[in-house]
Q: What sequence folds into this?
């Protein structure tokens, strides 16, 4: 259970709490933590890390919309990467402001244009149908490992033009998202988990590792053509590996679990399979894959009446905004017919997710055939119940044992 000491707010100051947002019991109970903060106010001071946390829909949107003063260039994580001794350099798209961001985003947007992504549709759909058919035929399987991971870790590296296996992908994903939080036990454990793969990790973002025909190669060509700043291409490949896999795996896993425990919604999807798109948005509204990332106030500012000094880190919780009762009716209900426009799981403003079309396509390529081939889906009670894997920023299922009856 989430517990905290609360200090009442003075004018211009946020209510304060000593809670550790990255403690195991808090990460295990994300929504109780959000409820606790929400009850205090949309902006709360977290004394342990000297940061403010934002849960209100309007305030999360405001922070993401105003890249000035809420800069990304001081890091999308808890630590300020511009401070002396910072242990990592910033990412070339997600951790830069305009005009650098505008240039990089423009070049990457051309490489990942809607026409390019739409052209992958046939391949994704064929691979999705084939995988789902072979997996559901077994009757019992793990929805995360056998479907979500197996699919995403096949098609995304294929189109990017990289070779990556499951252990490497899981280790790197865990570390990347843990790195958005403090250097706590989760972070340390994921650094240890990644250690055996370091030689591979150092090579994977280099030009020589790109398999011809993938879009990774095009990123290096854009750098050669001056469309990207020198030295940006490798960092962008890393951004793809960071942003492109665990998030989509999380969305597919959460959707399968939500569908298995909401029979009425499952029946609706089966009757109207083109609702898979609505399932995507409603899933990531209700179970946002990235629960925490940061901005930094680059000049003194005021948010919801709270004064934020220069250098203040602001933790943004899209998953809380997506369940804010002042914005969403019956916010904890999974409703695939809901009007989800405005949900913030894909970010908002200039840094909004550039890979969302890819994510949708991947999602629909798995969930679509699943709803077509399966008549009934439930948890496999002979296995341990599913649980979310604790991570400083990512909400993703560790496992999802399912039992299905075929249509
Ligand atoms: C369900 C799946 C996904 C979710 C929930 C998600 C979530 C997000 C969020 C919240 C942001 C904003 C970060 C910020 O403002 O600091 C973002 C940006 C980004 N995403 Fe995604 N993402 C998903 C899929 C993908 C995929 C498939 C790719 C691969 C191309 C990708 C690549 C990126 C990149 C490169 C950015 C940075 C964009 C920028 O800074 O302009 N994402 N994503």
A:
């Amino acid at each position: 259970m989430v517990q905290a000491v609360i200090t009442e707010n003075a004018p211009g100051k946020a209510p304060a709490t000593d809670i550790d947002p990255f403690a195991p019991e808090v990460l295990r109970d994300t929504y109780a933590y959000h409820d606790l903060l929400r009850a205090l106010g949309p902006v709360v001071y977290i004394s342990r890390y000297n940061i403010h946390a934002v849960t209100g829909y309007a305030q999360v949107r405001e922070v993401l919309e105003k890249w000035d003063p809420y800069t990304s260039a001081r890091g999308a994580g808890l630590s300020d990467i511009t401070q002396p001794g910072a242990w990592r350099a910033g990412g070339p798209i997600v951790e830069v402001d305009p005009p650098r961001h505008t240039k990089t985003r423009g070049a990457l947007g051309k490489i990942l244009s809607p026409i390019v992504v739409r052209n992958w549709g046939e391949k994704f759909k064929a691979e999705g149908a084939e995988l789902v058919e072979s997996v559901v035929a077994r009757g019992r399987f793990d929805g995360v490992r056998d479907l979500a991971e197996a699919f995403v870790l096949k098609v995304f590296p294929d189109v990017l033009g990289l070779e990556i296996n499951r252990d490497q992908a899981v280790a790197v994903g865990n570390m990347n998202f843990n790195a958005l939080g403090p250097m706590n036990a989760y972070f340390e454990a994921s650094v240890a988990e990644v250690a055996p793969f370091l030689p591979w990790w150092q090579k994977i973002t280099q030009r020589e590792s790109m398999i011809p025909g993938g879009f990774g190669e095009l990123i290096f060509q854009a750098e050669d053509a001056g469309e990207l700043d020198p030295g940006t291409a490798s960092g962008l490949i890393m951004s793809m590996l960071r942003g492109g896999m665990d998030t989509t795996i999380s969305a597919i896993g959460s959707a399968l679990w939500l569908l298995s425990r909401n029979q009425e919604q499952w029946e609706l999807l089966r009757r109207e399979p083109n609702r898979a798109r609505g399932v995507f948005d409603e899933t990531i509204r209700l179970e946002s894959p990235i629960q925490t990332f940061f901005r930094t106030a680059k000049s003194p500012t005021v948010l919801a009446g709270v004064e934020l000094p220069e250098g203040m880190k602001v933790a943004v919780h899209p998953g809380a905004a997506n369940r804010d009762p002042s914005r969403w009716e019956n916010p904890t209900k999974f409703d695939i017919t809901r009007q989800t426009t405005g949900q913030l799981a894909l970010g908002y403003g200039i840094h909004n997710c550039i890979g969302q079309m890819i994510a949708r396509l991947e999602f629909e390529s798995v969930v679509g055939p699943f709803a077509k081939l399966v008549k009934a889906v439930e948890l496999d009670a002979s296995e341990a119940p599913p649980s979310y894997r604790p991570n400083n920023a990512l909400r993703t299922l560790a496992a999802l044992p399912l039992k299905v009856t075929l249509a």
Summary: The chain has one domain: 6-406. DSSP finds 17 helices and 14 strands in the chain. The pocket of protoporphyrin IX containing FE is lined by residues 64, 72, 76, 93-94, 105, 239-240, 243-244, 247-248, 251, 284, 289-290, 293, 345-347, 351, 353-355, 358-359 (CB under 6 Å).
